[in-house]
């Protein structure tokens, strides 16, 4: 799948293993999720365009350097687990705006229903990085992508810590234009839609609610 990138950087793999471990504390889990998000942000912004900028260096020499062009970025965590990736991502791109999307799954229709949506006014002009630690069934990611597309966004990327093949298939089928970046691609979903081997419930592990 050409629009799916699995990061094999040793630091990311090391931290993902620590994140998965059932003995990892809430504090450590939060720190690790943030650090991995920071490392992933470094990689997923690799294609940002540069433009020339004339400066005078500390030696008084004029030179033409490179700076990221005026391209505007926006990160959008999917509530609530996506919040665990925000600080790490912002440590690399501190000027990015932050939107939020909240979804719950209707127990009868199993469809994702939006309960919160706050996006920057100029969101359609921005490159969007959707953040969600777990790409499981793809239902909430597909719904979030659709919300962003309905808001006029054209350049959308998904950044996930762990993905299941089932979710990747659903999202690439529904939104082949969206690039997906994952730190690990796992084996499968179990009957409760948990990723196996996975790490458990990312929201509970981030916020200590279990
Ligand atoms: N959400 C989680 O937090 N964990 C999973 O394994 C799947 C979805």
What does this molecule look like?
Helix 4 (139-150) links the parallel strand 9 (134-135) and strand 10 (155-163). The chain is an alpha/beta fold and 210 residues long. The longest helix is centred in the first third of the chain and has 19 residues, at 26-44. It has one domain (4-49, 67-205): 3-Layer(aba) Sandwich (Rossmann fold). Helix 1 runs antiparallel to helix 2 and helix 2 runs parallel beside helix 3. Helix content is 31%, strand content 31%. The chain starts with a strand and ends with a helix. Uracil (URA) binds at residues 81, 134, 136, 194-195, 198, 201-203.
Short description:
The protein has helices at 10-20, 26-44, 86-92, 139-150, 165-174, 202-207; strands at 4-6, 50-56, 62-68, 73-79, 97-98, 100-105, 112-118, 127-131, 134-135, 155-163, 179-185, 188-189, 195-196. By secondary structure, the protein is α/β, with parallel strands linked by helices.
């Amino acid at each position: 799948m050409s629009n799916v990138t699995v990061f094999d950087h040793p630091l990311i793999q090391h931290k993902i293993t620590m994140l998965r471990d059932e003995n990892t504390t809430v504090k450590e889990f939060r720190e690790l999720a943030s650090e991995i998000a920071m490392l992933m942000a470094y990689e997923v912004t690799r294609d940002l365009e540069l433009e020339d900028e004339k400066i005078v260096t500390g030696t008084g020499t004029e030179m033409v350097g490179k700076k990221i062009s005026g391209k505007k970025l926006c990160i959008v965590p999917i509530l609530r687990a996506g919040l665990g990736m925000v600080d790490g991502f912002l440590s690399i791109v501190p000027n990015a705006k932050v939107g939020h999307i909240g979804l719950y799954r209707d127990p009868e229709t199993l469809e994702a229903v939006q309960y919160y949506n706050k996006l920057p006014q100029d969101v359609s002009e921005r490159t969007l990085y959707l953040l969600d630690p777990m790409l499981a069934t793809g239902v909430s990611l597909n719904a979030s992508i659709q919300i962003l597309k309905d808001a006029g966004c054209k350049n959308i990327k998904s950044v996930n810590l762990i993905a299941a093949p089932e979710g990747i298939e659903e999202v690439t089928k529904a939104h082949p234009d969206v690039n997906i970046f994952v730190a690990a691609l796992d084996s499968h979903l179990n009957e409760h839609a948990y990723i196996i081997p996975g790490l458990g419930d990312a929201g509970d592990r981030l916020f200590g609610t279990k």
